[in-house]
Structure formats: C-alpha cells, structure tokens
Input
Amino acid sequence: AQKVTQAQTEISVVEKEDVTLDCVYETRDTTYYLFWYKQPPSGELVFLIRRNSFDEQNEISGRYSWNFQKSTSSFNFTITASQVVDSAVYFCALSNGYSTLTFGKGTMLLVSP
Amino acid sequence: GAVVSQHPSWVICKSGTSVKIECRSLDFQATTMFWYRQFPKQSLMLMATSNEGSKATYEQGVEKDKFLINHASLTLSTLTVTSAHPEDSSFYICSARVPGLSSYEQYFGPGTRLTVT
Output
C-alpha cells in the first residue's frame, strides 16, 4: 500500500521568507513517481513537478526547489523568497505508474505581506 | 498541454434532487477518467475510475448507486449524484489520462463545487 504524509497542516510566513514543505512517502515499489501540486483558493490543481524514483537529482525552477532523498523517503519542496501569490494548499502525491495518484493531506501555506 | 473542463463549476441543489457533473477532455481522447471528491480542508479522495465503454470501477466505500458514472464517449464522462443530501456537498474534481501513458499522466479539471441545501 502506498502512503503520503504531509505532517505540516498549515504554515504561516511573511513575504520574502523561505519556506519548506515536507513530504514523506511509503511504498514497496522500486519504481514510483512523486508529484507536487498547488491548489489555490480557486480550487484548480496546478501541476508543479514530477520526479521518478530513479532520479534523485534535486531540481530548481525559479523560486521553487525540490529535494528528493530516497534514503529518508522524502520529497521536500522549498519556496525561496515567498510571495503572497504563493498562498495555497500544496499536495504531495505518489504513483507506482500503473495505479492512480495517492495524495497527502496537503499543507496550507499562508504568506502575509 | 492537455485541457480538461468541467461543467458546471458550481451548483446548488435541493436535498433529494439529482445533479449531473460533466468532465470533458478538450484536445485529446481520454479512455480513462478519474473522479475525486474533496471535502473542505481535506485531501483528494479517489471515488472511481471511469473507462470509456465499460462500467466504472468504484473505490471501497463509494456507493455506486448514488454516484452514477457514465463514460459514453472518448471525451466525456459524467458523474450524477442521485438523491443528493447535504453530506454530499463537496468539491468534485475529475481528471483524464492521456492514452498510451501511465496512470500518473493525468490532467485535472477545474473542479465542481456542489452545495446541497
């Protein structure tokens, strides 16, 4: 069985602060895929990144960066110099490739000016 | 990228009535679509997997007679909430899988907010 744990229910930061959202996963599969989605107040899910289990390289995209560590089964997401527009719920998700997505419970990020 | 639409974006209905939600893949044919439900401040929970031309596969605990899913064409899946009750109020999200790709290659619709009064 697959499981995704996002222990942080809600995080509040002030604009320009860096913030890291944690994601820990459980799976027995050797091949799997990890995702991060953003859900702004409008409700629409926005795809941010997909990582497969064979690629442990960290990735940076603008102010966003992701740290994938198989040794600790973690796939953490960092936003650098946060902005008010980053306020949203962020979901980490997992798939073994032939099943659908298993979502974590989400972390609500509130960025205040 | 692939686009998935949902209609309506929000709906209010009276208890005991039925409401239909449409999910369309606009620029690709989707043999498989997924329906999720999201309660306020909670995660997305998969309700069912909809395959074109066959019966939907429901997740454990989801009443198939209450949540009727029809995937009659390669671009349209519908979810009908029958005899809706206030506890069915939720945010319903569909996604569509691009044919030939893995199940994780899903494109999500914008969601439908259902309120049952």
The two ends of chain A are 41 Å apart (CA to CA). The first strand of chain A starts at residue 3 and ends at 5. Chain A touches chain B through 20 residues (CB under 8 Å).
